[in-house]
Amino acid sequence: MKPSPLISLHGGHSGEFCRHAKDRLEEIIQTYIKKGFKAVGITEHMPPVSDLFLYPDEIEQGLTARDLYRQFARYIREVNRLKSVYKSDIRIYTGFETETCSGYIPHVKRLIHEFKPDYIVGSVHHVDDICFDYSREEYDKAVQHCGSHEDLYLRYFDLQYDMIKALKPFVIGHFDLIRIHDEIYKQRLLFPSIQEKILRNLFLIKKLGLVMDYNLRPLSRGEKEPYLTPALLRTIKELGIPVVPGDDSHGKEQVGSHVARTIQTLETLGFDTHWPDPGDIPLN
């Protein structure tokens, strides 16, 4: 059987345009080509809505939301330049990854209107404006804010549902990211209250014809499971929702990590690896 072509639709963060990544974007594209990728979606983070959502490292460097907006504009220009330069070697999709925080919906829609990406990745990194995945301390703060781990999960999946309805992102980024600092997430994800929210969100994703990100970044950090857990993956397969690998790379050393093996896993599980094209879903 001919192997499925290598692809990542959530990747390509570079030190050129992301403070917690490494290397120039062109070097990252060249690495994808060297590793045999035929398609890649470059999905840099969107600029923050305001200075309230700057990360600590950005604040330390004296940056503002306006600075990061200008950086984002440079990022879009560079991706589109590289798309032309390497068009005979690889298909590059211009994308960006959303945040889900106060004021994000009009902000994302303005970015789509102005920069016209091929698609967006819809992600939730904040619960009630607390960036729970930045550190264990921030995660614990989010738990305390919500009242319990269970309530944090419930709030996360509600925010995710609202984001999916409002933005209809082609790719749903790291669906179960809320488990990032939870040692008993396998049991927690099976709580009936949480399962109800998960299934509601998956039914909406199915209805809208969107794609799930099989996010491999945890494996690059030495963790055992990607975002989606095996149990989630089985449910998603039963619903017939497409799942596409995302290396979520933050430097050329991480480019393509675990993708080939993951595609084999998806094929073994019976997933169709002839994935939809980002151009198939119109942006808002």
Give a quick set of tags describing it:
seven-stranded parallel beta sheet, 284 residues, 43% helix, two-stranded antiparallel ribbon, alpha/beta
Question: Overview of this structure, please?
Answer:
By secondary structure, the protein is α/β, with parallel strands linked by helices. The chain has one domain: Metal-dependent hydrolases (TIM Barrel). The protein is 43% helix and 14% strand. It contains 11 helices and 9 strands. It has helices at residues 25-34, 56-60, 65-85, 104-115, 136-146, 149-167, 185-188, 192-208, 217-220, 230-239, 259-268; strands at 6-11, 37-45, 91-97, 119-122, 126-127, 130-131, 171-172, 211-215, 243-246. The strands form 2 sheets. Strands 1-2-3-4-7-8-9 form a 7-stranded parallel beta sheet. Helix 1 links the parallel strand 1 (6-11) and strand 2 (37-45). Helix 5 (136-146) crosses helix 6 and helix 6 runs parallel beside helix 8. The model has no long low-confidence stretch (mean pLDDT 93).
